[in-house]
Amino acid sequence: MLSTSISGFVPFVICCVLLLLTGVQGSPASAPTSASGAPSHKAKASKPQRASSSSSTPASIYPPPDLVPSLDSPEVQQWLQEVDLSQAPNIPSNKGEPPTCGTGWTLNPKSCYTPCQECSADDVVTCPDQDVWGLTFDDGPSKATPALLQFLEKKQLKATFFLIGGNVVQFPELAKKESESGHHLASHTWSHHPLTTLTNQQIVAEMKWTEKAIMDATGHKVRYMRPPYGDVDNRVRFVLKQMGYVVVDWSDTFDTLDWQIPLHHRTRKEAEVGFQASIQKYLARKAAGKPGFISLEHDLADINVDLAQTLITYGANNNLTIRSIADCLHDPNPYAAINYAPGVNGVAVGSIPPSSTPKSDTDGLDLPQYRGKTSSTSSGGLSRFSPRQQHFLGNLFFGSRASAGTADGHNATRFSRWLVAVERISWSGAILVSFVAGLASL
Ligand SMILES: *[C@@H]1O[C@H](CO)[C@@H](O)[C@H](O)[C@H]1NC(C)=O
Ligand SMILES: *[C@@H]1O[C@H](CO)[C@@H](O)[C@H](O)[C@H]1NC(C)=O
Ligand SMILES: [Zn+2]
Question: What is the CATH T-level fold of the domain 74-88+110-367, as seen in this structure?
Answer without folding.
Answer: TIM Barrel (3.20.20)
